[in-house]
Amino acid sequence: MTAVSRIRNFSIIAHIDHGKSTLADRMIEKTHAVSARDMRDQVLDSMDLERERGITIKAQAVRLRYRSADGEDYLLNLIDTPGHVDFAYEVSRSLAACEGAILLVDASQGVEAQTLANALLAVEHGLEIIPVLNKLDLPASDPDRVAEEIAGVLGVDPSEVMRVSAKTGDGVDELLEAIITRLPAPGGDEAAPPRALVFDSYYDTYRGVVCSIRMFDGRISTGDRLRLMATGDTPTADEVGVITPAVVPVAQLGPGEVGYLITGIKEIDRIRVGDTVTRDDLRTETALPGYREPKPMVYSGLFPTDGDDFEHLREALEKLRLNDAALVFEPESSRALGFGFRCGFLGLLHMEIVRERLEREYDLDLVATAPSVAFRAVLTGGREIEIHSPQDLPDGGERSEVLEPYVRAMVITPSEYVGTVMELLQSHRGEMGSMQYLSPVRVELVYRVPLAEIVFGFFDQLKSRTRGYASLDYEPDGYRASNLVRLDVLLNGVPVDSFSAVIHADRAYGFGRRLVEVLRELIPRQMFDVPIQAAVGSRIIARETVRARRKDVLAKCYGGDVTRKRKLLEKQKEGKRRMKMVGRVEVPQEAFIAVLKVDED
Amino acid sequence: MRTDPLRPDDPVLADRAAGWRGAYVHIPFCRRVCPYCDFAVVAGRDDLRDRYVEAVVAEIAMAEPFGPLQAVAFGGGTPSRLGASGLGRILEALANRFGLVGGSEVSLEANPEDWTPALAGGLVAAGFTRLSLGAQSFDPVVLGDLGRLHRPADIGRAVGEARRAGFERINLDLILGSPAESDASWDRTLAAALDCGVDHLSTYALTVERGTALSRAIRAGAPGPDPDVQADRYERALAAAAGAGLVRYETSNHAVPGAACAYNLLTWGGGEYEAFGTAAHGHRDGVRYWNVRRIDRYLERVEAGRRPESGREVIVGADRERERLVLGLRRAAGVIAGSGGRALLASPDGRRLVEAGVLAARGDRLVVARPLLGDEAARAVLALPLPDC
To answer: What are the pLDDT digits (tens) for A184-217?
Structure first.
């Protein structure tokens, strides 16, 4: 164990592409934790999918040994944080494990909403912030302007903003030194009952659940009988250790230290991120603050294109869940799509990632239905139910009101787009909270907006209307009663449950009209006319028709053609296999998420 | 004793053709390559014609005899570019190797601009009985757009000369639905074609094949054929042909009774045929095979005494049953349902096709009642899970 005064726990807060992983690599390199030859680029991003998307989903901690200018050896624990708004809770837990944070900002881009949100979150957690400008090597960088901006937001002097180039390594030595001098050492009472925060966990096929923990008080040793305060579980500490990034088991972890913990537990939801670990025989009375049950924000149906794959899909979801406590699913049956699962996700990115992993790693061909937020309906009897699927919305007579989730949305935009952004937020039923100039050229807008309005397509619209310059962050902000209706779609006269959407009554007409137009574009012509209708209750509010295909025949098939024409037809047949039969109509997979393509202008 | 000829769409005729044997000879030479064409053709190498004739004759000598031929077809390319002597020499080699049944059909394709009374006379004398003329259109604008070299007047002249020389059967090939064509010009083309008094009409929708000049032009922004327009033109062709006494007996083919093309009937009925020349496809003993496509390779191989086959596939069991249905359903006479047809009718795809009026059961036969949607039925057949028996 290292003396608490020689430990620094910190994370790097940065927007995607602002160079977090590169900076982490440089630090690892400069502290010789990994030989340069062995170092994989961007050690912290472990999963292939994360690498492709340039984001980090699962937090991890790396222990670095650093000899400071004062001649003393220090332990630096670099705690990685996820980089997307879907994973805000995980970010908050990672920050809770730190005393300080590096706020890393691309000197050519400036502060983004999400970075700022995380930085403010860090301040709220009482973290000391070292603001750092990155990419000083780029000709487009504008360090003075961005330093002013950061200083303004954090209320510090611009001279406190450090400057580095993670790419070339310039300024990184100074930054390491600043981590020692500017960030506080952790506190903690070694004699008190142990308290450790679980700030990350993942499932390992051989070891079961491996969690990252931060010790606050006391010690945890290999062999201790532990107690998980949220779940009441009492597993044994089979192994504790640190990651350097090599995995190094240690006898015990003491106050201020960061490491990993392996117990016999195989199910990821038995050790939850945010939970407090203590010793069963030396129990603390007070859990560390901030624990929250993982709460899905967005629900979508996942159905195998081939009905025979249902069990395969179930197994795949169960395997993914081993590593993803935020993923929830329950069987769902659809008249249109057969048997599948209603799945809950933290957000659209989380949904995308899960779907891609199911298709890529488990070779499943899936139809995903349009995502929906979780509504609540108050039944006439007074009972309140949560609604994860539009089909579950009770009919008008059976409910007294419907509530929808709201978020507090924060947008940072160049000031020239303020009007555009306000219009966009208002058109999404947003109500203005506050407006603040971060600098003469950048404005922060805070709005209260229904989650359903933010979660589908809003981010793209925001980006396209501000030429990519605005950024967005949001957090849950309760439920409110809304005049919501269910919009149904009838295909060839038959309602298709998986096309239904819950929508604000004022928007139903425009939305329905655009939805049937989008569907008309997506559904190929069939052997007969296919009417597509949008309905609210029994009232048809929009209609389009996919005209029957008139010609679908090869003009020629003579003696020299038989093999070639058969191959051509077989290829066309394969294309059709990816369609889903809904009644008599062949529907391509993308039609089921047509709702996402509706842009109501 | 004289009996009335069978109608082209008579099931008896369709089923009879399954037992016929034939030969196909590919002649790749063309004066110029048409922009829509993706056949194995070669322009500007007429110097190879004599060598090619000798090579085909040599290839025929390498073939195993399999009984006398009901139908011989010379296709291309432009077979007429070989002249009567070259074509006659190949036909003679076929007759010597295989024998021809009495009344066999010996057909060639020709372009109107190449056609002369001397050529016509020479071909009849050599034993040719049927001419298929690449007329394509009677509209000079459409002909120009299709890259054709003849004028509308050449077509009627060629037909007259062929008839006077003694050709028993004459077909006109027409292309429908090209971008330069209008409803009115298509109607005029149909009227002019039928006015020639031919006994057979092939009306093919213009098809954009990959790798052709047409396909490149369309990718670069030129207008392409519109399937809805082609459907209209197809229906006009049906009506006009029927009005002149021609019966549709295959997706794109119409004939007066007695004038159905024997070689094509044989193909659609699953009959066997040997193939000679570049890229020619044959079908024999449950095998489909094809020759090398390039003329230089073809000549090298045959001149070295080797067979020019470049690929083959064995069609047996369920594949054969599916192929029987796919080919047979192109015919107006349809196909005997058999095990595959019954499975199709019982399948979800088959039920949808029947419901949509595309597929119909007539007695023990299956027919495609909406030929413009025939590929829907073909794909359903190819998707059928059939036992390999």
So the answer is: 999 888 899 999 999 888 888 788 888 999 999 9
Residue with tokens 């952790």: A186
Nearest-by-Cβ selection for B382 from A561, A570, A584: A570
Q: CA-to-CA distance for A132 and A115, rounded, in angstroms? A: 12
On chain A, the residues whose CB falls within 8 A of the CB of B273 are 559
Model pLDDT, residue A593: 79
- What is chain A's length? 601
Which residue of A561, A569, A584 is in closest CB contact with B375?
A: A569
Other beta carbons within 10 Å of B103: 9
Among A232, A231, A218, CA closest to A189: A218
Q: What is the pLDDT of residues A452-470, one digit of tens each?
A: 888 877 888 888 898 877 8
pLDDT digits (tens, 9 = 90+) for A272-281: 888 999 999 9
Closest residue of B to A552, CA-based?
B373
Low-confidence residues of chain B: pLDDT under 50: 1-2
- The structural domains of chain B, ordered by start, are 11-268 (3.20.20.70), 317-382 (no CATH)
The full set of domains in chain A, from first to last, is: 4-182 (3.40.50.300), 195-279 (2.40.30.10), 298-368 (3.30.70.870), 376-482 (3.30.70.240), 485-597 (3.30.70.2570)
pLDDT-derived band at A43 (thresholds 50, 70, 90) equals very low
Query: What residue ranges in A149-279 does DSSP mark as E strands?
Result: 162-163, 195-204, 208-217, 220-221, 226-228, 239-243, 247-250, 252-253, 258-262, 276-279
Asked if pLDDT for residue A37 goes beyond 70, the answer is: no
Closest CA to B26 of B4, B6, B42: B42
Kindly provide the ipTM of the predicted complex, given to two decimals: 0.91
For chain A, the residues whose C-beta falls within 8 A of a C-beta of chain B are 527-528, 549-563, 566, 569-570, 572-573, 576-577, 581, 584
